[in-house]
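Re: that backbone. Tokens:
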């Protein structure tokens, strides 16, 4: 009897949910919760094609590797840009998780951008299948984010979710288990980092890297002026001398740097609301606009969205984890939530 129970536990722990993000990959295992959260970076020996590092360790190598080592972010704008590197990264992560949690060949639900093409869908499916999955299901990220944020997506009332990831911002109006209307733009966390890099370069003639820009965004980034100004010393390369140089940035400067991209994100939210049927719009007015993804953590973004739309806006609890939690809940209750899947591929 004990052996049968053990077998049942192993079977029950096979299923996985994956948030295949441009900036981070998160994995949840049925019955275990989130078991992995790593940067979407892989370091590969270009001669032997052997993986040297993944995640945080590989991220440390970005911009610092010798010629024979390639440290890359294989996902761009929420989709696969480097198929081989993505496949190697996924295989490494799935093997790591599977061996630790006796997951065998798991069924996997993967969160993908709502604007994904059929070709991109197939690329994601194939990469996950080659990485060792038994079955692959795809779910649109804003739908997964809504489920992960605790929204009853099957209810006959309207909800709107804005998922601001690394590569894309996804907006979806959801009702009765489906997406009533959605929009996706390739302006999100990465673009904000680029805005900061450009601003520092133009203002101070100092070149900084992506990692530094991301740190600036997280520490002093804001969508509206702060009550108390924040400052941060930034070190980069002085383009005039070629030597290390530094400057002090303020939160007001970062707000100016990212303003154009933030405005585009707000515009796509407004555009989605304009296309929403009146009955659902009244539901949204009551519930508010839910912000998820890493971009939701930019200070005062919720206040700016509320000010520009005239509707309440709130940041989901643990916004970085909403998509992966949604994929996990979907795989756990796949029969009830099958309607939210955009496709399925089985390898029996």
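Recovered sequence:
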């Amino acid at each position: 009897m004990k052996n049968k129970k053990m077998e049942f536990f192993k079977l029950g722990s096979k299923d996985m949910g994956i948030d295949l993000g441009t900036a981070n990959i998160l994995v949840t295992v049925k019955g275990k919760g989130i078991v992995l959260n790593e940067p979407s970076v892989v370091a590969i020996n270009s001669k032997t094609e052997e993986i040297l590092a993944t995640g945080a360790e590989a991220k440390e190598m970005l911009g610092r590797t010798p010629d024979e080592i390639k440290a890359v972010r294989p996902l761009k704008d929420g989709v696969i840009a480097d198929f081989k590197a993505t496949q190697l990264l996924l295989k490494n992560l799935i093997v790591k998780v599977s061996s630790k949690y006796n997951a065998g060949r798991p069924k996997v639900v993967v969160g993908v951008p709502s604007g994904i093409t059929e070709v991109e869908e197939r690329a994601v499916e194939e990469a996950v299948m080659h990485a060792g999955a038994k079955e692959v299901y795809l779910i649109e990220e804003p739908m997964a984010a809504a489920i992960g944020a605790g929204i009853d997506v099957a209810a006959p009332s309207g909800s709107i979710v804005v998922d601001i990831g690394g590569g894309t911002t996804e907006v979806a109006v959801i009702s009765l288990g489906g997406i009533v209307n959605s929009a996706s733009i390739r302006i999100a966390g990465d673009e904000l980092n680029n805005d900061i890099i450009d601003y520092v370069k133009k203002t101070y003639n100092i070149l900084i890297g992506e990692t530094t820009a991301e740190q600036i965004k997280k520490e002093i980034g804001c969508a509206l002026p702060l009550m108390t100004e924040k400052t941060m010393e930034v070190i980069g390369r002085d383009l005039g001398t070629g030597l290390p140089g530094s400057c002090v940035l303020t939160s007001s400067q970062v707000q100016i740097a990212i303003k154009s991209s933030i405005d585009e994100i707000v515009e796509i939210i407004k555009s989605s609301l304009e296309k929403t049927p009146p009955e659902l719009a009244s539901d949204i007015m009551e519930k508010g606009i839910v912000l998820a993804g890493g971009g939701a953590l930019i200070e005062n973004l919720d206040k700016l969205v509320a000010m520009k739309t005239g509707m309440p806006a709130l940041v989901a609890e643990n916004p970085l984890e909403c998509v992966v939690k949604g994929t996990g809940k979907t795989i756990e209750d796949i029969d009830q939530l099958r309607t939210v899947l955009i496709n399925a591929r089985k390898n029996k």
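The first strand starts at residue 16 and ends at 20. Residues 2-144+322-346 form a domain with the Nucleotidyltransferase; domain 5 fold (CATH 3.30.420.40).
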